[in-house]
Amino acid sequence: MARLKKGGNRIDVTSVPVIRVLLVDDHPLVRRGIRTMLEQAPDIEVVGEASNGVEAQELVAQMRPDVVLLDVEMPGLRGYEVEAWIRKNYPQTIGLVLSAHNRDVYLAEMMDAGAVGYLDKQIPAPQLVQAIRRAMQGESLYSVEQLHCAQRWRTEVRDRWNSLTPREQEVLALLAQGVTIDEIARRLGISPHTVETHLRNTVHKLEVDNRLEAVTWAWTNGIIERPAPEE
Burial, 150: exposed, middle or buried (Cβ in 10 Å; 0-12, 13-18, 19+)? Predict the structure, then answer.
């Protein structure tokens, strides 16, 4: 793609095609704000908006946008699932994350799914526009710190979680949801003693001091979602 020609503060867009962008976020006000920011750039066109992952897939298939700006947490499909689908089916479409979530698990998931960058929603408009242009030129937009955080999550968190057996993972997930030992045993068709054994093994493998720390570790690192607070 031809580079932008600048003359003072003006951009000559005659030498570059318009970058077609799809916005994916479940908050209408956020989408409106992003659209307003991008509409100030003469070489960027917002061609559509999606409020969830399924809508995003439908619009990508219909519109074949150049860039998809998407959040990580949405109803239905999560951001990394949408991005992985885009990479598989429409590899020419570039995925760029714009999110208020800064947890390492989201960063690693989106990076592994194929997104070219992970931006904070507080990014100033000029920087967002420039990031889209850089993405279209084939640049990776991850900082050194983000690369390190994603790698730490892969090696220190995901590998440790994968050291648990499927049954140990299942028991910990139920415990993290507030299910009692006796109820876990009943649901899984095993004895309470066996549940306790799985939890002891889990505590040892995760290198924590007790089952509460094991649950907190899983919550903090995004392995298991925290239960929604009771109303």
Answer: buried
Model-level pTM? Answer: 0.75
Residue type, 155: T
* Percent composition of the chain: helix, strand, coil (DSSP 3-state, to 5): 50, 15, 35
- Nearest-angstrom CA–CA distance, 153 and 147: 10
Phi/psi at 230 (5° precision): -70, 140
Q: What is the pLDDT of residues 16-56, one digit of tens each?
A: 689 999 999 999 999 999 999 999 999 999 999 999 999 99
Residue 152's contacts (CB-CB under 8 Å, 6 or more residues apart) are 104
Q: What's the rounded Cα separation, in Å, for the pair 106 and 215?
A: 19
Contact 73, 80 (CB under 8 A): no
Amino acid, single-letter form, for residue 144: V
Positive or negative torsion for Cα 185, 191, 194, 200: positive
What torsion do the CA atoms of 175, 181, 182, 186 make, to the nearest 10 degrees? 50
Number of other CB atoms surrounding residue 56 within 10 Å: 30
A 10 A CB-CB count for 196 gives: 15
Which residue from 205, 204, 203 is spatially nearest to 215, judged by alpha carbons?
203
For residue 227, the 8-state DSSP code is: P
Q: What is the C-alpha separation between 80 and 212, in angstroms, rounded?
A: 29
The beta strand positions in the chain, using DSSP E, are 5-7, 10-12, 19-24, 44-50, 67-70, 94-99, 118-120
